[in-house]
């Protein structure tokens, strides 16, 4: 089974680093919108496809633009929300990486399925500061859940640290921040 991890398009929080990381709920930039539109050609979707989306505005916007007019399954899950890489227990979640509430998602992004059965407790904190041992247990459970879509293409629209954390687990080798994907960068992983 193949998972295709896609990093969101360019967000406002990346325009003036490091100060812009303190932007709450950043949108896609104009360039990020163009990048999201380019996914339509790179990965044409069908109604049989599944997109699992992190609950941040920039990932939701990326998925909405890319999947416009396609009635594929679109699932929002905090199990692919922002994740620090590498983990530093003393670090705090940055404002740009705080996840949206289910209520805001329902209001601003109608038509999406909000995954709660396996992830309800993670809607409040997300996985950003989760210690590696706990993340691995949660990630393995998430990947097991993904297997229910075995005969479908599964895309995960997420964040550089999250994608790197999942890739490290799935591929079985150590990664560094140098392995981070650029905006709308892709990693395909078989498991």
UniProtKB/TrEMBL annotation:
The protein depicted here goes by the name: Histidine phosphatase family protein
Please name the GO terms that the record assigns under molecular function: phosphatase activity
- Record Pfam families: His_Phos_1
Q: Which domain of life is it from?
A: Bacteria
Q: Which GO terms describe its cellular component?
A: cytoplasm
Q: Which PANTHER family match?
A: BROAD-SPECIFICITY PHOSPHATASE YOR283W-RELATED (PTHR48100), HISTIDINE PHOSPHATASE FAMILY PROTEIN-RELATED (PTHR48100:SF1)
Classification via Gene3D superfamilies: Phosphoglycerate mutase-like
